[in-house]
Specification:
The structure holds 2 protein chains of 2 kinds. Chain A is an alpha/beta fold. Helices cover 30% and strands 22% of the residues of chain A. Chain A has helices at 52-59, 86-92, 114-123, 130-143, 149-152, 162-174, 192-209, 220-226, 244-249, 254-261, 306-311, and strands spanning 10-21, 24-36, 41-45, 68-76, 79-80, 97-100, 180-184, 212-217, 229-234, 237-243, 317-318, 326-327. In chain A, helix 3 runs parallel beside helix 6 (162-174), helix 4 packs across helix 6 and helix 6 (162-174) runs parallel beside helix 7 (192-209). In chain B, helix 3 (30-52) crosses helix 11 (261-288), helix 5 crosses helix 7 (155-182) and helix 9 (197-233) runs parallel beside helix 10 (245-253). By secondary structure, chain B is mostly helical. Chain B has one domain (21-48, 74-297): MetI-like (MetI-like fold, Orthogonal Bundle). The chains are: A alpha/beta, B mainly alpha. Chain A: One of its GO terms (molecular function) is ATP binding.
């Protein structure tokens, strides 16, 4: 067993990612910092284009090297990940940090059997004979709750349902026994009942292996159910972070408040006509090539103050009286 | 989407591999069956030609020159009194061998170029594809003739020349498919689980671009056989007295008014072979296209 006391397993500091585009430099991630603790779940929340997936791919060196410019630091288990070459990154991928992708329909190779893909992931890091790898693959399939795993090894991805395929993807991601698992919208493409099963499965596996999980999603319902710590991203920046309770009960940043308002509440006890209307947020996230000078949320902000917000970028500051809860806004909501 | 209770049931049917399924589907297409049978017969003739042919390809019948088709000489005889039927049978071996070796050369070289250019991109892509464009810019026959002018005429050199001429097509077809497959999430997923470039290329990219390459191979076989015939027709390919369909066509041309059979039968052999390869290529394309595939197998959509 590894040493589990004390300290995060992955520590990201001031991560920045920019892409060279024909129109100029697109700054997609702008100074992201977070820690992932073993056995705990960090949720990264944001709308499409907020830089949440790019930030994760940058950690694994999976962005195209010729157009992506990455800076900052990401220390995994005492080992700096940023600036490593392809060979060095290969040793980390799968074995140190595993990843589950959004759409199980496209993240498995359609022409290879499930068994071959699992065996391949197993043998990518540990040299083991084929029959040992095969037996281990069967165990893994059983572990992720696939019935009749022996015969499923011979199945092609199109012969499995979406939920089953995502279970296979999880098995593949776990094959290298990673200490950090990045789940990038891992349940978004699944229907709700299957989603709940996959969430249960991941939480069980996380507990058993005390894996640190980064859960990337735009689904706040999922976040409330599984996360320990939440980080809200907007235009490549963290605009608010804190424990699940702090964030859901005492959101400070107008963007977070907007996100929460845009989530329908199913069991609202009030009669229909008294319920709050579903809030939509007008506008779009800013163009990463032309980020506004001050607060990136300024153009959409319902509570903006004129001069300061437009010219000065609000720092990520602790929320008074709420340890661990930080927000990047000049606005102070009433009653907080 | 199915629910998990259904998933607990065993998957229906056997887990057939994609290639077995492809063959089964192909078997339902009558045109594919006919062309497959023709090509199978051609291979048999090419391999066992010596045993099947009634006479030797160089056997001359004194006094039997330019004889019309008869019970003794089905396709007649040529100006030296050689049996045209036997020569056509022997010619099958030459055509098929030249076609296979030439396409083999362009297949290996072209696919390798396409894989590397498409997958690694950047300067490697530029270098390889501009080189292939350069080859592509020449008319195929002119290029083959130019290469043979350097290497000298002959069957082996004809294979090399045809192989070089058809390489850019394979490079392009492969590169185009690699460009789309490269962005697939399963490629990223396998890299995320620690697979290296060689493994990703061999295990994930190549199998997923194989369908268009297979179709291109059958079509190119037809073109290669035509090219061999054309090169032999102008005297740069197979040398006399070896029988080659193109050579026989060219020799028959001089006697077209006295002995139409000398040119007709080798021409027919070329026609039937090329047609069979093309029809098979078409059928393969239909079967290997996943969108048409579900319609063909009659199972409907199904993700």
């Amino acid at each position: 067993m590894r040493d589990e006391q004390g300290g995060p397993v992955l520590s990201v500091r001031d991560l920045r990612v920019a892409f060279r585009t024909p129109r100029g430099l697109a700054r997609v991630v702008n100074g992201l910092s977070y820690d992932v603790e073993p056995g705990r779940t960090l949720a990264i929340v944001g709308e499409s284009g907020s830089g949440k997936s790019v930030g994760a791919l940058a950690l694994l060196g999976l962005l195209p090297g010729d157009v992506a410019r990455i800076s900052g630091s990401a220390v995994f288990d005492g080992y700096e990940l940023i600036g490593r070459d392809e060979e060095e990154m290969r040793a980390v991928r799968g074995a140190g940090v595993g990843m589950v992708f959004q759409d199980p329909a496209t993240s498995l190779n359609p022409v290879l059997t499930v068994g071959r893909q699992l065996v391949e992931a197993l043998r990518a890091h540990a040299s083991m004979p084929k029959d040992v790898a095969r037996a281990r693959a069967e165990e893994l399939l059983a572990e992720v709750g696939i019935p009749d795993p022996r015969s499923r090894l011979e199945a092609y991805p199109h012969q499995l349902s979406g939920g089953m395929r995502q279970r296979v993807m999880i098995a593949i991601a776990l094959a290298g026994q990673p200490r950090v698992l990045i789940a990038d919208e891992a349940t978004t493409a699944l229907d709700v009942t299957v989603q709940a099963q996959i969430l249960d499965l991941l939480m069980r596996l996380q507990k058993e292996h005390s894996t640190g999980v980064i859960w990337i999603t735009h689904d706040l319902g999922v976040v409330a159910g599984i996360a320990d710590h939440v980080l809200v991203m907007y235009a490549g920046r963290c605009v608010e972070e804190g424990s699940v309770d702090a964030l859901f009960e005492r959101p400070v940043h107008p963007y977070t408040r907007g996100l929460l308002g845009a989530t329908p509440v199913v069991d609202d006890p009030r009669p229909a006509r008294e319920r709050d209307l579903l809030v939509t947020m007008p506008g779009l996230p800013p163009d990463p090539v032309e980020l506004p000078e001050g607060c990136a949320f300024y153009p959409r902000c319902p509570v903006r103050a004129d001069v300061r917000c437009r010219t000065e970028e609000p720092p990520l500051a602790s929320v008074a009286g709420d340890p661990g809860h930080r927000a990047a806004t000049f606005y102070t909501p009433e009653g907080v | 989407m199915r629910d998990e209770a259904l998933d607990a049931l065993p998957v229906e049917g056997k887990h057939r591999s994609r290639w077995v399924e492809t063959l089964l589907l192909l078997g339902r297409n009558p045109m594919a069956l006919v062309s497959g049978a023709v090509l199978f017969a051609l291979v048999v003739v090419a391999v066992f030609g010596a045993a099947v042919a009634p006479y030797g390809y160089n056997e001359q019948f004194a006094g039997g020159q330019l004889e019309a088709p008869s019970g003794q000489h089905w396709f007649g005889t040529d100006e030296f009194g050689r049996d045209v039927f036997s020569r056509v049978l022997f010619g099958a071996e030459v055509s098929l061998r030249v076609g296979l070796v030439a396409v083999g050369i362009s297949l290996v070289a072209g696919v390798l170029m396409g894989l590397l250019a498409g997958y690694f991109g950047r300067w490697l892509d530029d270098v390889l594809m501009r080189f292939s464009d350069m080859l592509f810019a020449f008319p195929a026959m002119l290029m083959a003739i130019a290469i043979l002018a350097i290497l000298g005429p002959g069957e082996n050199n004809a294979m090399i020349a045809i192989g070089i001429v058809y390489t850019p097509i394979f490079a392009r077809v492969t590169r185009a498919s690699v460009l789309s497959v490269r962005e697939e999430i399963y490629i990223r997923a396998s890299r995320a689980s620690g697979a290296g470039n060689t493994r990703v290329l061999a295990r994930h990219v190549l199998p997923n671009v194989s369908a268009p390459i297979i179709v291109q191979t059958t079509v190119s076989l037809a073109f290669a056989i035509l090219s061999e015939a054309a090169l032999s027709f102008v005297g740069l390919g197979t040398q006399p007295p070896d029988p080659s369909w193109g050579r026989m066509l060219s020799e028959g041309r001089g006697f077209i008014e006295q002995a139409w059979w000398m040119a007709l039968f080798p021409g027919l052999a070329i026609f039937v072979t090329v047609l069979a390869f093309n029809v098979l290529g078409d059928a393969l394309r239909d079967v290997l296209d996943p969108r048409q595939r579900s319609a063909l197998s009659g199972k409907g959509g199904g993700a």
